Amino acid sequence: MLRDRRRVNKDRSGGSAGYSQVPCPRSRGNARNGQALLELTLVTPILFLLLVLAIDFGGWLYAWVEVANATRAVANYSILGPHSAGGPVTPNAGAITSLVATDLASLPNYSSTNPSVVVCWNNNGTVSSITGTCSSPSLDPESSTFIAVSVDLTYTYTPLIASFNIPAFHITLPSLPTTIHRRVVMRFI
Known about the structure:
Blueprint: H1 2-6, H2 29-80, H3 93-104, E1 116-123, E2 126-131, E3 147-156, E4 164-166, E5 171-173, E6 179-188
Antiparallel strand pairs: 1-2, 1-3, 3-6, 4-5
C-alpha cells in the first residue's frame, strides 16, 4: 500500500491521477542557513549605525536641555542675586561662570570657552554688561518701571558622527546642528 502512494498513476488521458513525490525539506537546510548568515551580515552594519545615531541624537538632546536649564538658572540668579535663599553674592562674572560650570560640567566638549555666556542689564535704557559684550540688549517696553536682564548662552556640541555619506548609493545623512543657543530675558521691579 505504501508503494501505491509513491507511484504516480496515469489515468486514461495520460495525465497523472495520483500522488507525486515531494522533495525532502532537509535537502535545502544548508542553503537556508547560508541565507540567514548573509542577511545577518548585511543588516548588522545598518543596525549598528542606527544605534550610534540614536545615541548621538540622545546626547544632542541632553545638551540642548542642559543649556536651556543653565540659561534659566543664570537669568534667575542674575535677577534675584543676594535676595534669594541662602543670600549668595551679588551677580558678577566669576559667580555666573561658576554657576554655568556647575550646571554644564557633564556635557561633552565642555571647556572654559565653550559655552559662551553674555549677561546684560537694561535699567531704564542704560545697558550694562555683567559678562561678555552686549550686542543686542533686550528692549523693555516699560523701561521706567522694570529692569530687564538678558542671558545669551551658546554651546557648541560635537557629535559622535559628524556626517554620514555613502556616495555609491547617493545616501547622505545630514549632521545635527552643532551650535545650541538659548536666550532668556527676565524683568524685575
